Amino acid sequence: xxxxxxxxxxxxxxxxxxxxxxxxxxxxxxxxxxxxxxxxxxxxxxxxxxxxxxxxxxxxxxxxxxxxxxxxxxxxxxxxxxxxxxxxxxxxxxxxxxxxxxxxxxxxxxxxxxxxxxxxxxxxxxxxxxxxxxxxxxxxxxxxxxxxxxxxxxxxxxxxxxxxxxxxxxxxxxxxxxxxxxxxxxxxxxxxxxxxxxxxxxxxxxxxxxxxxxxxxxxxxxxxxxxxxxxxxxxxxxxxx
Length: 241
Prior knowledge:
By secondary structure, the chain is mostly helical. 74% of the residues lie in helices and 0% in strands. Helix 2 crosses helix 4, helix 2 (28-50) packs across helix 8 and helix 6 crosses helix 7.
């Protein structure tokens, strides 16, 4: 099994001990419920930084704190019942602040990004459950390779930016920049299919109950990425007007 999501890499469920009883085993419905709860925490936390002038300290603190908690969760999966809600709150603080900044510059962009993100999640879940989209080995290889390529581009851009060197076109609102953002949105969305596949396999493998929280965490990582990329794409499109 493969996933472009670092939280749901190939050996995650293989490393988790198998549950001895049905009631203590991971289920798909349990993961869905915990994902919904985590999304609610994101929204509640985001409303705190959205309802006021964005505080850079809170926003940056949420982003850095969320990254640290994510790393802890990846290496200490059994802590996920605690770290996943904490991650959701911290990411909510970050997303609320950055969303407010985008909204101030591009009115209406946040609502559109939220609707498109949730709509993409629902559409891909239906497509996956109905068998329209299947997480075949070649499909996984393609998505993982594309995700890795995007990560390299962003890393190079960040490093060059530290030395005052900008990468032309990619982050601009021209045709190339919009095409790049659209490509990234598609790959981020397809990572959701890989996440669904991992969660389904975890339930089938009777992973322990706490892995429901870890599955929810993995989905949250992809959804946060997808939402941010939706914001970037929509802001580029609106910036052309």
